[in-house]
Amino acid sequence: KMLPYLLRNHDTSEMAIGIYEQHFSTHPKREQILSILSEYYIKNNRSDDLAMEVVELLFSLNPRARDNTLYLARLFARDGKFDSSAQLVYETVLDEEEEDTPPEIVSALANIYIKAGRKDSQAREIYFRELELKPHNTDVLRMLGNIAHSKKHLDERDIKVLSKLFKAPSTDEDFRLSIAKNLVKILPKRKNE
After folding, report:
1. Which of 111, 119, 137, 152 has the fewest CB neighbours in a 10 Å radius?
2. What single-letter DSSP state applies at residue 183?
3. For the chain, what is the mean pLDDT?
4. pTM > 0.90: yes or no
């Protein structure tokens, strides 16, 4: 009987939260209650099992609930979650936040993409963003180096990556020789430009 009153007034007192949580246990897909609980959990930085269940369920019903999705992504990144459901959450944040994507989300996506061996343009951009955050991330450097090796035309960023890889002490001799061959091919063209 109190629920409609609490919802109408967007009550987030401790008592109201208890009532919402009870209602959630019997009606888990009521988006209005999920939104209020999510907002409360975010504000109070709750990450227990119930909070995770609520924010994950709200994400499944409404991935565009910005604060909820961002909070879920941060919790996943904090916990080192790199599975396909986490990837979907991270990519949703990336789509919504674009250049303002939190660094931990960029790092989590870079990790997922490296493990999957992704070399597409979206992955490449994430790798470059991760490299800006962590300039000595050798896994990202190697992946970008592999992508550059497969390209016919190298841009400035590719050249910088290859140069950095060439100078890195961890680069093996065969790869260093391959990099040198690639760089030698483009240097005469660049002098003529």
Report:
1. 152
2. H
3. 89
4. no
Structure tokens at 137: 């991330």
Tokens of 174: 């065969």
Phi, psi of 136 (to 5 degrees): -110, 20
**Three-class DSSP category at 47:** coil
In the predicted model, is pLDDT for residue 191 greater than 80?
no
Local structure of 191: helix, strand or coil: helix
Tell me how far CA of residue 113 lies from CA of 70, 132, 152, 153, 155, in angstroms: 19, 17, 22, 23, 21
19 SS3 class? helix
Name the 3-class secondary structure at 33. Answer: helix
Can you spell out the DSSP letters for 57-104?
Answer: HHHHH-TT-HHHHHHHHHHHHHTT--SHHHHHHHHHHHHHHGGG--HH
